[in-house]
Design brief:
Oligomer: single chain
Shape: elongated
Strand content: under 5%
Largest sheet: 4 strands, mixed
Strand order of the largest sheet: 2-1-5-6
Helix content: 55-70%
Distance between the termini: 83 Å
Number of strands: 6
Length: about 675
């Protein structure tokens, strides 16, 4: 009873903030300790570590220079720790939702349960799937929180009777407005939401529509400073070097082909509205929740159930505090409908005009601004179309959908981190040091490598964390993405290729490559030796085509091993089969055949063996060179189970000079299948 009394006595806003925080923690934080670096994080954090604040300023200067101020501040506190950035991103996400509650509770004081529902749906909206990418999306989330609070403070200023309060609220809302636009320029649609609310408040006063508009413009005129100052700077003083954020470039197509562009924009906007409202609840769920195993699905359902219980509790508390209103009063519903529709369109229109579109999961970030409109419309639909009992059931389904989606999404991010970390720990076991200026081509099983810095970033973190250029960020190791263009350039022996990505300079060289491939999740990392290429049965055709060009001499075998920094790569994984394989492969490269045999024996004593049969190759070669016919014969039934592997053993050992006649006879009879 005491606990119930204490909860009852909590201020409404504080109780809602606590509930939203707990629900958000259940939805977004189950895997937070397992999140690492993703996508752009690799080059951003490498550059920051190599040259500090100057590098961060350079990275953001081409399109969003104000983003550097936030990132420099956070880097000063968090350093390279991904966990802290994810906590910060989580805090911004919650702050944005609390801002939505404050906005709705300010404008519709008698509808606090509705305000809570809107804030909740905005918070757990399943269409934004980059929450675990806390470093890169830090300023997206900070800007979103600033936008919701800026509008909430504008509403409080308009509704306040005290001049001092009006001035204070408006001043703070303007500062936050400049801040959110400086972080993400296409959030400018929030200004339409701001003015929709200002007009809505004044139209409640009744009377002449023209007079209401005039009063609204006069009382809300300080808000004009937000877009005027920002657009003045953006259009007349700042010159974007990135096409996606260059206003003139994006609108250039309209002036050349107005009808075609209008039609394209209209269809794109309609499709994006459908995606934000409906596809966001189905496509991510199908992609991330359905493929989970039964145990993770059960955990996800439990997370969803807890969120539902907390949401029901929050609704009960906010409903208890509502003032009784007329059941046939539909004014607020009309207001909310138009606000939701305006928020949806205004949130997407800048994205459409920039010739971008919502796509799950790659471009889910474009749902962020419009998700407020979706939350408002869904909350309104729950109130308008459902009875109180069925309303709870419908809301529960939405909450469960979001919880399962985000749990599955978080699991995939955590799995990607683990696979990436395991890959590079294996590379560290295999490679003491890379020769400077080596171009790496990497294939990480079940992890998409979309940009070259997904490879050279982690490689340089381990082997060359400092910039090689005093005037700019220049890594010592480069990379090429494994795609058709790279395959063609390798086959054509193309020369060095210069690239400057936001002040990070690279010189990939297709004549200077080393291939690192993990053909399947059950395989170890294979360093391809172009003079003696060995391919797994699961290896991709792309690797097979260019494997002979991989130059193993770029591995400096006599250097000291480098330990991957634990902050980025986590602790060293358990030394299972892949440790012994990598150590044996390194010993083979050094010509230390007795060491290879010793490692094989130690692995056998521990009951370890490969899932990928090509990984027997260092041991088979050691047995052949040392004349160990007995071990060669013992392995033959295992190897010949995969004729493709047996064929490679036959070919490779057939080219080794100095083998004894017994070894040659054993290989010919047991491995060289007719």
């Amino acid at each position: 009873m005491k606990m119930k009394s204490r909860v009852k006595n909590l201020p409404g806003g504080l109780l809602v903030s606590i509930l939203l925080t707990v629900i958000a923690a259940l939805v977004y934080l189950p895997f937070v300790f397992q999140f690492g670096y993703y996508f752009d994080d690799w080059y951003i954090m490498f550059a920051a570590g190599a040259r500090g604040a100057e590098a961060i300023r350079e990275i953001y200067s081409i399109d969003r220079p104000a983003g550097a101020f936030l990132m420099n501040l956070l880097y000063g506190f968090f350093g390279a720790n991904p966990f802290l950035y994810n906590l910060s991103g989580f805090a911004f996400r919650v702050a944005g939702a609390v801002g939505v509650f404050a906005l709705c509770a300010t404008v519709w004081t008698q509808r606090r349960a509705f305000a809570f529902t809107t804030a909740l749906l905005f918070l757990i909206y399943p269409g934004f799937l980059s929450q675990p990418n806390g470093i890169t999306y830090q300023y997206y989330l900070a800007g979103l929180a600033a936008a919701t609070w800026s509008i909430a403070l504008t509403a409080r200023s308009i509704l306040s009777d005290k001049l001092s309060a009006k001035a204070w609220y408006f001043s703070l809302s303007i500062v936050l407005g400049w801040f959110y636009l400086s972080q993400i320029e296409w959030y400018i649609g929030f200004e339409a939401i701001r003015w929709a609310i200002i007009l809505m408040i004044h139209f409640r006063e009744g009377g002449n529509a023209r007079q209401n508009v005039i009063r609204a413009v006069l009382r809300g005129s300080p808000a004009f400073l937000i877009p005027i100052v920002f657009l003045g700077w953006r259009l007349f003083f700042f010159e974007s070097e990135r096409g996606a954020t260059d206003v003139g470039l994006q609108l250039g197509g309209f002036f050349s082909y107005p009808l075609q562009m209008l039609f394209r924009w209209a269809t794109s906007l309609a499709q994006d509205m459908f995606n934000v409202l409906f596809s966001a609840w189905t496509i991510p769920l199908e992609r991330f929740a359905f493929p989970m195993d039964a145990s993770n699905q059960a955990i996800g359902l439990c997370v969803g159930a807890l969120c539902i219980l907390l949401a029901w509790f929050g609704l009960k508390q906010t409903q208890d505090n509502e003032t009784t209103v007329s059941s046939d009063d539909s004014t607020w519903r009309r207001e909310m409908f138009w606000l939701g529709l305006i928020a949806l369109i205004a949130g997407l229109l800048p994205v459409t005009l920039a010739n971008r579109e919502v796509a799950f999961p790659t471009y889910s970030r474009y749902t962020l601004a419009a998700s407020l409109g979706a939350a408002v419309l869904f909350a309104l639909g729950l109130v308008s179309w459902f009875t109180p009992k069925s309303r709870r059931m419908a809301l529960s389904i939405l909450i469960l959908t979001s919880a399962l989606t985000h749990y599955g999404n978080g699991l995939q991010y955590a799995t990607t981190t683990q696979r990436t970390r395991d890959f590079w720990h294996q590379v560290a076991w295999r490679v003491p040091q890379f020769q400077k200026n080596t171009t790496l081509i990497a294939n990480i099983a079940s992890v998409a490598t979309e940009e070259d810095y997904f490879v050279w970033g982690p490689a340089n973190f381990i082997y060359y964390p400092q910039s090689q250029n005093a005037e700019a960020v220049q890594p010592a190791l480069y990379a090429a993405v494994l795609n058709q263009n790279t395959i063609q350039n390798v086959l054509l022996r193309e020369r060095q290729e210069y690239d400057n990505r936001r002040g990070v300079i690279t010189y990939k060289n297709y004549r200077n490559i080393l291939i690192l491939s993990q053909p399947s999740p059950n395989s170890c990392v294979h360093v391809i030796n172009g003079l003696q290429p060995e391919f797994s049965s699961a290896e991709s055709d792309s690797i097979r085509v260019i494997g002979s060009y991989s130059e193993i001499e770029h591995i400096l075998v006599d250097e000291t091993h480098h330990t991957p920094p634990e902050l980025v790569f986590g602790p060293e994984p358990t030394r299972t089969w892949c440790f012994f394989f990598q150590s044996a492969d390194l010993a083979r490269q050094r010509g230390e055949w007795e060491t290879v045999i010793h490692l094989g024996e130690e692995a056998k004593q521990r009951g370890l063996s490969p899932a990928d049969l090509i990984e027997w190759m260092p041991f088979i070669q050691a047995y052949a060179i040392t004349g160990d016919v007995e071990r060669l014969s013992a392995l033959a039934p295992v190897i010949t189970a995969e004729p493709y592997i047996a064929l490679q053993v036959c070919r490779i050992l057939g080219g080794v000079e100095g083998l004894s006649s017994d070894v040659i006879e054993t290989v010919d009879s047991l491995y060289c299948l007719e």
